[in-house]
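Page 42, continued from yesterday. The earlier attempt failed because a stray header line got pasted into the input along with the sequence. Redoing it now with the clean sequence only.
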Amino acid sequence: MKVESFNDVQVGDALPGLIVGPMARHAVGVYAGASGDYNPLHFDSDCARELL
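This time it went through. Structure tokens are written below.
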């Protein structure tokens, strides 16, 4: 479904998924600073790998 404007969307319509490119590490760090969420799982690759 191609949506041209908000007025084209009706209750129950299935919308297309949003696909974005890879996240830059800098963007993750900026988000952590803005949200106050400094969980190392979110930005430390070694910490995240330990959970696999």
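Notes: The two ends are 37 Å apart (CA to CA).
Reminder to self: strip header lines before submitting.
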